[in-house]
Amino acid sequence: MSESYAGKINRKLLKKRRKLAAVRLQFWPEAPQEVVKFLRDKLVVPADRCYTQTSPLDSGSLFKLAGRISGDGGHTALFYPAAKPMQAPAGYDLYTEVRKHDVLLAYPYQSIRPFIKMLLRAGADPDVVSIKMTLYRMARESQIVQALVEAAENGKEVVALVELRARFDEQNNIDWSKHLEEAGCTVIYGFDDYKVHSKLTLITKKSAHGYSYITQIGTGNYNEKTSELYTDYSFITADLGIGEEASNVFQNLAVQKLTEESEKMLVAPLRFKSVLLDEMDRVINAARLGRPASMILKNNSISDRDIILKLEEASCAGVRIDMIVRGICCVRAGVPGRTENLHIRSLVGRYLEHGRIYSFYDGVNTRIYIASGDFLTRNTECRVEVGVRVEDPVLKEKLDSILRLQLSDNVNAREMQPDGSYQKVKPAPGEPLVNSQMGMYDLLRDDWTARDKAPAPASVVETPKPQPVKAPEKPAAPAKAAPQPARPTEPEKQPVQPEKAAPAPMPIVVTESRPRRTGLLSRLLEHFLK
Known about the structure:
single chain, eight-stranded mixed β-sheet, 15 helices, 21 strands, globular
């Protein structure tokens, strides 16, 4: 794209925001009515869009206030205990480690530093010919961008696809794109018709044996700041097939062409929803054959009609479906005759749940994907999203343990009811508190060196869910041939092959038995209103 395109985006997006129609008017109860009427008339805001509120109209100032209060050390009850990402042990080199086996990092529990160091190592490696990366939201002081700049200064071909339409980050992205261009990087400004929301990095090496790749596919942005606040997953691999597919994706992005073919990667809008629907069909067919089929789907939001209808079909076929949806959810759980086998929960805790994991079990094998895209129509049809099927047995086990830990949460979880409302999940009498976010620190404590201590499992096979699956309203005849096995009373990890092996129970993480506090802003307001 030419630089004029960046200027065009700048003018249209940054200036247009100041001219958009008002959709809501908020004011203090003591505000003069003549002023309110004047604003309503000038902004053309109907009466049902006008709200009085006693809390501050602009809560942004409270963040600065929180910073000052936390700095004095005298109000510890208002804040979460200090928690930092777990650092890799001394001598850990992701650039070398990924050539031995695939790696999965879980933010914010594990540090993003190994990934940044990998970029620096690649930029200084004489065998590396290029580094390509999609950039959506970058930190104000981005070490990742600086690593790309250093690579370009070392003579590497650096290609950065910068999405200038990242909402509220347009100016920051424009500034960084200029910095990259000045350093000699090739900057692509994305599609005209599709927003590039992918999180994809490709390092290409050339040796006497040919080309090799290191590919990173993530659920979250390349942003050091949010990597300590959002829960995300970063998959890094030296798999040649994935590298070639990623190379093809970048080639298509450079000429504004959509990716139509891929085997291991999900690439929206043409090879994302279709693959996931195929996986759901595979699970549905297994259930109709009487096998204990199930799905666990974790993302931010869901509105795609095709996926919703497929979930309804799966539920009616007897598939146990567990969904962890933090935000917008346009499907109801537990509706008799339609979604009675669909169970939806939302996790809202210290960190913003942002990762996407899609797990499909057909009674024999489990296939697990991570992706940058949710189940919103804008993700499945209107954006360039990237995902990947994780095949490494150790990483499949890791992702499965994360999902089951979150399904056991009784501190941060709220479950959807058939009427669309949510009910807080509370532990039963005598049951320990399970905070899945804090439990991740224990789950991943030895993750950096886990492969050196124990052999990898042959594969992950999902066990039946602890809750009974209701029979479909009109079950297929073959389903009677294979009755469901008895359900255990506690959530279990997926056992390893062979299938007859006894399942290992998932470790339950016990947190402090104390009432859960409300959000930081609410606690600050409560404190100063006393």
